[in-house]
């Protein structure tokens, strides 16, 4: 059996590990599971515009996937958590899915919540990916 490899990308990944004692992803063989990613910068600033926050959250997922040796092409499942889930949020998610995964459609669970890890957050995205390597 493959042993888990915990992934901590430089920047906010290291900060979260040091402050809150968790990793941004785990890789077991060819499977990668990410922790939820928000639309934060390395200094935990959030954009003022909802669309930019969502795009940054997708960028952060991509960054964690890359650190684990995966990409959006490998994503098979998405869970998204939303404060203020509405048509705008769904439209941004769909736009980003089409942009980042144009050749496939992963399964998706979309959940409206009252709050996330920071009161400034409106979205958190976690994914499962399966790579061809192991």
Task: Describe the protein.
- This protein has 134 residues and is of the alpha+beta class.
- 31% of the residues lie in helices and 25% in strands.
- A six-stranded mixed beta sheet has the order 1-2-3-6-4-5, with helices on one face.
- Helix 2 (50-67) runs parallel beside helix 3 (87-100).
- The longest helix has 18 residues, at 50-67.
What's the helix count? 3
Q: Please give the domain count.
A: 1
The CATH architecture designation is: 2-Layer Sandwich
CATH hierarchy, class: Alpha Beta
- Helix content range of the residues, please? 25-40%
Terminal Cα separation, in Å?
A: 11 Å
Q: Specify the overall morphology.
A: globular
| Poorly predicted residue ranges | none
Compute the gyration radius: what is it? 14 Å
Keywords:
six-stranded mixed beta sheet, 134 residues, 60s Ribosomal Protein L30, Chain: A, single chain, alpha+beta, 25% strand
Care to give the gist of this entry?
The protein has three helices and six strands. With 134 residues, it is α+β, with helices and mostly antiparallel strands. It has a single domain, classed as RutC-like (60s Ribosomal Protein L30, Chain: A, 2-Layer Sandwich).
SSE blueprint:
Elements lengths: L4 E3 L4 H9 L4 E4 L2 E4 L15 H18 L7 E8 L4 H14 L6 E6 L10 E8 L4
Parallel strand pairs: 4-5
Antiparallel strand pairs: 1-2, 2-3, 3-6, 4-6
Helix pairs in contact: 2-3
């Amino acid at each position: 059996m493959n042993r888990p490899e915990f992934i901590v990308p430089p920047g906010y990944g290291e900060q979260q590990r040091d402050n809150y004692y968790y990793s941004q992803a785990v890789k077991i063989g060819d499977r990668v599971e990410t922790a939820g990613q928000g639309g934060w910068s390395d200094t935990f600033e959030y954009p003022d515009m909802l669309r930019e926050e969502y795009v940054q959250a997708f960028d952060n997922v991509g960054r964690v996937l890359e650190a684990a040796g995966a990409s959006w092409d490998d994503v098979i499942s998405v869970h998204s958590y939303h404060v203020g889930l509405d048509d705008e949020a769904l439209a941004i998610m769909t736009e980003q899915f089409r942009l980042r995964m144009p050749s496939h459609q992963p399964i998706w669970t979309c959940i409206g919540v009252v709050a996330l890890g920071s009161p400034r957050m409106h979205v958190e995205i976690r994914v499962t990916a399966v790579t061809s390597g192991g």
